[in-house]
Design brief:
Number of strands: 9
Shape: elongated
Number of domains: 1
Radius of gyration: 18 Å
Distance between the termini: 47 Å
Structural class: mainly beta
Number of helices: 0
CATH class: Mainly Beta
Helix content: under 10%
Strand content: over 45%
Length: 156
């Protein structure tokens, strides 16, 4: 069985430590959510109406290379765990009241992007993240996704 969800949203935050040589480590968590999508099983496709939520926790390493005094490029990755919940209301137009709450499962991610230093203490970031969560769709499928993201980094 394969499930493809519609575009969703995420809110993530991280705290960490920069070693001053471009390398930083961080602990990250947040919330990811999507509504509806499409499923397929043995070559047949069908609409899926419902909600899917996740709470990941990652330990990340990020390396930043300064291109200028204000612009930099970063690359990083992390491993961790993810809690997931799926509520499926209908499949292929048939009503279904299915709720699945997973245990915590393995998760991993890779990310890269640009960072623009606004002040000595703040930067704006834009990037891409690939996300993977094992058995994270109600134990029916692994979760995989591409995320375009924007963010703010505050240094103190």
């Amino acid at each position: 069985m394969n499930l493809d969800f519609d575009t969703g949203f995420s809110v993530l935050g991280a705290v960490g430590y920069s070693f001053g040589n471009g390398l930083a480590v961080e602990l990250e968590s947040g919330y990811l959510g999507v509504d509806g999508g499409e499923g397929s099983f043995r070559g047949r496709s069908f609409d899926v109406d419902g909600e899917f939520r996740q709470v990941p926790i990652f330990a990340n390493a990020v390396y930043t290379v300064d291109l200028t005094d204000r612009l930099g490029v970063y690359i990083g990755g992390g491993i961790g765990i993810v809690w997931s919940e799926a509520e499926i209301d209908s499949v292929a137009g048939y009503n279904l009241d299915f709720t699945s709450s997973d245990e915590w499962n393995f998760a991993a991610q890779a990310k890269a992007g640009l960072t623009f230093k606004v002040t000595d203490a703040a930067s704006l970031n834009v990037g891409y993240r690939y996300y993977y969560g094992q058995d994270a769709v109600g134990c029916l499928d692994d979760a995989q996704g591409s995320v375009l993201e924007g963010g703010i980094t505050i240094r103190f």
